[in-house]
Amino acid sequence: MANKIPENARFVEVECKDCSNKQIIFLKPATKVNCLACGSTLAIPTGGKADIKGEFVGVVE
Ligand SMILES: [Zn+2]
Q: Is the CATH number 2.20.25.100 carried by domain 2-60?
């Protein structure tokens, strides 16, 4: 899943696997990103491209 994300992307839309909430997140976050609706983890910082835990929807231009 994560390998579909282009290297030059900065923001991506991710769908929460628990509640289907769609959320735009920074692809290289400094802190863990949680779903605003249910609090489930959507992305974990790695120092580079985040480890996306939700469903990748698309790149936000
Ligand atoms: Zn959620």
A: yes
